[in-house]
Amino acid sequence: MASSYGYPFKQQHCLSISQFSRPDIETLLSLGEHYLDLDVQKSPDRTILAGKTLVNLFFENSTRTQKSFEIAGRRLGADVINMSVAGSSVKKGETLLDTAATLNAMNPDILVVRHNASGAPALLAQKLSGSVVNAGDGMHEHPTQALLDALTLRRVFGEDLGGLRIAICGDITHSRVARSNVQLLNMLGCEVRLVGPPTLIPSDADRWGVDVFHDMETGLEGCDVVMMLRLQLERMSGAFVPSKREYFHFYGLDRAKLTYAKDGAKVMHPGPMNRGVEISSDVADDPHLSLITQQVESGVAIRMGILHALSDARDDIA
Amino acid sequence: MASSYGYPFKQQHCLSISQFSRPDIETLLSLGEHYLDLDVQKSPDRTILAGKTLVNLFFENSTRTQKSFEIAGRRLGADVINMSVAGSSVKKGETLLDTAATLNAMNPDILVVRHNASGAPALLAQKLSGSVVNAGDGMHEHPTQALLDALTLRRVFGEDLGGLRIAICGDITHSRVARSNVQLLNMLGCEVRLVGPPTLIPSDADRWGVDVFHDMETGLEGCDVVMMLRLQLERMSGAFVPSKREYFHFYGLDRAKLTYAKDGAKVMHPGPMNRGVEISSDVADDPHLSLITQQVESGVAIRMGILHALSDARDDIA
Amino acid sequence: MASSYGYPFKQQHCLSISQFSRPDIETLLSLGEHYLDLDVQKSPDRTILAGKTLVNLFFENSTRTQKSFEIAGRRLGADVINMSVAGSSVKKGETLLDTAATLNAMNPDILVVRHNASGAPALLAQKLSGSVVNAGDGMHEHPTQALLDALTLRRVFGEDLGGLRIAICGDITHSRVARSNVQLLNMLGCEVRLVGPPTLIPSDADRWGVDVFHDMETGLEGCDVVMMLRLQLERMSGAFVPSKREYFHFYGLDRAKLTYAKDGAKVMHPGPMNRGVEISSDVADDPHLSLITQQVESGVAIRMGILHALSDARDDIA
Fold first, then answer.
1. What is the pLDDT of residue A3?
2. How confident is the model at residue A252, as a pLDDT?
3. Residue C3 pLDDT more than 60?
4. Distance from CA of B208 to the nearest CA of C (A)
5. For position C217, what pLDDT does the model report?
6. Are C166 and C193 in contact (CB under 8 A)?
7. Predicted pLDDT of residue A44
8. What is the mean pLDDT of residues C50-56?
9. Cα distances (Å, whole numbers) of residue B46 to B40, B55, B79, C50, C51
10. Chains contacting chain A through 3 or more C-beta pairs under 8 A
11. What are phi and psi of B171, to 5 degrees?
12. Which of A208, B153, B208, C201 is 20 to 30 A from B214, comparing alpha carbons?
C-alpha cells in the first residue's frame, strides 16, 4: 500500500467523513484523480478487485449512485451484485440484522449500502466481515458525494482548496450531502456558508463551523462556489416551503442571483435537479458556470479510488 | 475494419434503417451470420468489447429485447449495466437531456436505448460521446428487429432476398417493427405488402413503396413470407378493433388463411404473441411453417454483429 | 468427470431430490464441501463456467436464493443474466412454453428457475437444450435447499448423517423445503419427524416415511436437529392458524421448547425468519444452538457444486 500511494491508508470502511484524517482524504482524492483518466478506468488489466464480490445494496432508489458504484466496481474487475430492496420489507432494525447475517454468509468483500435510517451502514459494518461503504444514510451522511465534490473542485482550483469561500444553499436540514460536505470542506480549509430559509436550516448549525445566511444576496457575497441542493418534492407544499414558485423567487439560483457571488464563480448540484425550483436551466447548462457534469464524471472516479483503497487496506491486514 | 469484413463500415450509431447503405446492411448481416455459430458466441476469447461499458437503458419494459442485448454484450466481453426506468420519472424532454448528461459523464462506449418517444435515441446520440443503438422508439423504428428478421430470412432463402413477396399483417399504424421492416425489405429488393383493417393502416402508407390490402385472401396471395404483428391489448376494445374474436376471424393467421399464401410460405412474428388473437397456436408452433424461434436466435447474433461493427467503427476514428 | 470426483455424475438437471441416486448426492455434497473454502470460491482462475450463460429466471421474488445462485455462477466465471418476471404476465401454461422457446433460442447453458406452479421446471427441462435447476416450484420441491441443509449438517455431524433424529416443524403442508428435505434426509439414513398442527400436516404424510407429531414436547424428544419452517404471513389469520400469538405459544421454538430435544440439539431455519412467530430471537441468534448462518454459507457453496457438476455432465455428453 505504501508503495502505491505513499501513505498507509488503513481505513476498513467508508462510513462518514469524520472517520478520516486529512492524509486519508488526500489519498482518496489522489486515487480519484488517477481514475479520472479514462484509459486507466478501462484498462483491460483489471486486477485490483479481481475475484472479489461487491454487493450494491440499496434500500432507497437511486439509479445514479447505484450505477456509479456498479460501473466503478466492474471497471476494477469485481463481481458486482445489485440488490434493490423495497423499503417496506425491511422496516425493523431486527430485520436489518438478519439481512446483515445473510449477506455476511455470502461473504462479500465490499458492501455498498444506502438506507433511509441514519447509522444503518455503521451497524452493518459491525456485523460484516467485509468493508462497508455508506452510499447515503437517512439525513446523516453521504461521504462519497462529498469526496466527489472535492475531487471536482480540485480539477478547477488545483490541489489546495484552502481559503475558497463556498455557499451550500437550500434544504440543509434534510440533506446528508450538506452534512458530509460541511465536514470535508472545513477539513480542507474552505470557508463554508449555509444559505436557506430558517425552516430548512438545522437549529444546531451554529456548531458546524459555518456561517448561516437566510438570503442569497448576502449569503453568496464573495463566494467562489455555489453548491445548490435538491429540494425534495414532498417538502414543497406546506410546512417547509410555501410553493415552488415562491421558493424559486427567493432561493432558486438564476443568473441574477449568481451575480451576488464572485465573478467567475462555479455552480454545483448533486443531481437530480428540479429545474426551475432550486436552479434555472440556463445556469445549470452553461458549461462556463456549471460543474454538474464534471461531478458525475468524478463520481465514477472517486468511487474507483475508494474501492481501491479499501481493498488494499483490507488485504494488508489479511 | 476493412481486414475484418471487407467493407469500411463507418456508422457511429444504429438509429434507423434509413441511415444505412446497402453495403452497411450486408456487413451487419454477414457479421450476424458469423455470430449465429454458438461456438463463436461462447468463445472464451472475448476481446471485441473487453473493457468497454454497454449501458442497456430501457424506458419501456421489454425483457426479451433487453436480455438479448445483455447476452450479446456479455458474450463479446463488455461490462453490461442494465437501467430500467419507470416511465413516469422521465416524462419531460428536459429530463431526458439530464439523463443523457449523467450517462455521458459515466462514459459508456455504447448506449442501447428503448423509449416511448420517437426520436429519443437520435437526441441522445447528439449528446453522448459513445454509440447509441435504438432498441425501439415510440412508433418510429426498431432497426435491430428488422435486421434480425432479415438475418432469419437469409437462413431460409439464402443471401439474396430479392424478389421475395412478403406480407406484413395486422396493426401497422402503431408498429415500429413494420416501419423498420418495410424500409429494410424494400432495400433488399423484396416486394412488400401491408395487410390490415383500414383503422390500422397509416394514411401515408401509399408513399412507403408497398401495396396495401384490407383482406388476408388477396393480401397473402403468392407470398413467400407472412409476417404477423402483435396487436396491443389496449387497442383490442373500442376504437381500432371491435373484439378479439372478430379480429381473429378476419385477420388472425390460421392454417386456413395461410393457404392463401404460396405453398411452403414461412410465418414470422416478433413476439411476444397473442395466441388466438393475431395468430393461432398450431401455425405458430409448427416447425415447418414458423420461423419464430429462429428469429430469437437471430436476435442475439445480429446484436453481437451490430455491437461489433459499431465498436470497430468508433475505434477507427479514435 | 471421473477424474474430478471419482463417480460418474450423469444428471442433466436438478429438478427433484427423487431423481438422484445416493452416489449422486455424495458427489454434490463433496463438491459443496470443496466450495466452502473461500479461497477456492474466489480464485481468480475461473474456468469451470467460463463462456457459459446462466439465466436466473424468478417468477416469484426471492432475493436470497436468486442472489445466492448469481454469486455462485459468477464465482465460477459464468455470465449470469437475471430475469425477474412479474407473476401476472405469465399466468398461462401456454405462455410459459413461449418463454421457454424464447429462452432456448438465447441458448443458456443453465437455467435456474423458481415458479409458483409445481412442475414448471420439469416442463422447461423438456423444452430447453441446457440444464435446468429447480430453485423452488410451488409446493413441490426445493432440492438445492435440501442439499444445502445436508451440507450444513455434515459440517457439524460429519459425513455420515445416518441415525440422526431430525424434527421438521411448522407448516409442512405448504412447504417445498419440507418435501425436499424429507426425501433427502431419508435417503441419508436419518430418522425424520414432522411436527405441526393437524391443519398444516398433509393428509398423505403417513406415506412419506416419517413419524408425525402434533405437539412439540413429544415431537422433539431425542432430536439431534430441529428444523423450523417459515410460516407464510397470509396463513396466519383464519383457516390455518388462529393467531400469531397462539401459534408461537404452541409451535414457536424458544429455549423452553428446545429443552424437549436432545441436549446440544442444533436449530435450523431456511429463512427469512418470522421472529416471534415460528422462532424466538434468542434461539435464532445463539451461535451455540443455531446453524442458520452456516445454512446461507452452505447455499453459495452447494450451488457452486451443483452448477459445476451439471456443467461437467453436459460437457461429457457433448
1. 40
2. 96
3. no
4. 31
5. 97
6. yes
7. 61
8. 93
9. 10, 18, 12, 11, 9
10. B, C
11. -85, 85
12. B153
Report the length, in residues, of chain A.
Answer: 318
In the numeric block, the cell 419531460 is attached to B92
Q: Which of A37-41, A196-200, A205-209, C170-174 has the lowest mean pLDDT?
A: A37-41
pLDDT band at C169 (very low <50, low <70, confident <90, very high): very high
| Upstream peptide bond of C242 is cis (omega within 30 degrees of 0) | no
E strand or H helix at B35, and its extent?
helix B22-35
Residue A36 CA from chain centroid, whole number: 17
Q: How far apart are CA B194 and CA B211, in angstroms?
A: 6
Is residue B94 within 8 Å of residue A288, measured between CB atoms? no
Band of pLDDT at residue B122, cut at 50, 70 and 90? very high
Put the strands of the sheet holding A191-195 in their side by side order.
A211-213, A191-195, A165-169, A225-228, A266-268
Best A98, A127, A314 residue to mutate vs chain C (most C CBs within 10 Å): A98
Instruction: For chain B, say whether A202 makes contact (Cβ under 8 Å).
Output: no
Q: Do A272 and B51 touch (CB under 8 A)?
A: no
Pairing, β B225-228 against β B165-169:
parallel
- pLDDT value of residue B21: 96
Q: Under a CB-based contact definition with an 8 Å cutoff, are residues C156 and C162 in contact?
A: no
Q: Where does the pLDDT of residue A232 fall: very low under 50, low under 70, confident under 90, or very high at 90 and above?
A: confident
B97 burial (CB, 10 Å; 0-12 / 13-18 / 19+) is middle
Q: Which of B70, B272, B281 lies closest to C81 in CB terms?
A: B70
Q: What distance in Å separates the CA atoms of residue B179 and residue C103, rounded to the nearest whole number?
A: 26
What does DSSP say about strands C191-195 and B211-213: parallel, antiparallel, or unpaired?
unpaired
CB contact under 8 A, A105 and C44: no
Angle between helices B22-35 and B292-317 (to 10 degrees): 120
Q: How many CA atoms lie within 13 A of B270 on its CB side?
A: 26
Q: Give this complex's ipTM.
A: 0.86
State the average pLDDT over residues C150-161. 97
CA distances from A144 to A179, C94, C207 (A): 12, 49, 59
- Rounded to 5°, angle at Cα C129 from C125 and C133: 40
